[in-house]
Amino acid sequence: MYRAKEFPAKGLLTVPLLVILSLAACQKPSHVANDGYSWDEAPPMVLHASLKDSLSPNALNILRPSDSEGIRVKYSNGAYASYFEYQANRQDVLRAVASLPFPKYVMRADTTCYQIPIKDLAIIRQRISDTEYEAASYFWDVNPNDFDIYECYKAPMKHILLISKTSNKVLHRIELVS
Asked: Are 160 and 153 in contact (CB under 8 A)?
């Protein structure tokens, strides 16, 4: 008859020790950056976005943008901001965004786009994540003196438009606000 080999008592202590060491090895080192997010909150994701999915068909018909591709920075709480760069006539852009539909139950919805000062854009910049800033640096790193800056609330969306003073260049930020 076969008898199992007996292990000494000190061998039993090595198993819990190995388990503890393996758990400690699985933790993320504290020096690895996580963009300021806690461990139970995921960092934002940078995704592909299309202007066709962000604006109404009527607005797209008015704009006829040269390029409709951009990025979307999506946060774990469901909030997001999309960024687009395209060529379009200034008056067409303002008319298209002002004509966007909105739900009738909302407390605030603009029927026109309002020019805002540069300092308001700086305030918005201060509250976005580093991930969003890096992904949309082409929007945030422009010289604001070269653009007219507009804002338009179309609940639940907030549009920020940077329209070039010298060309048809448009930088468009669409944020889901709650």
From this structure: no
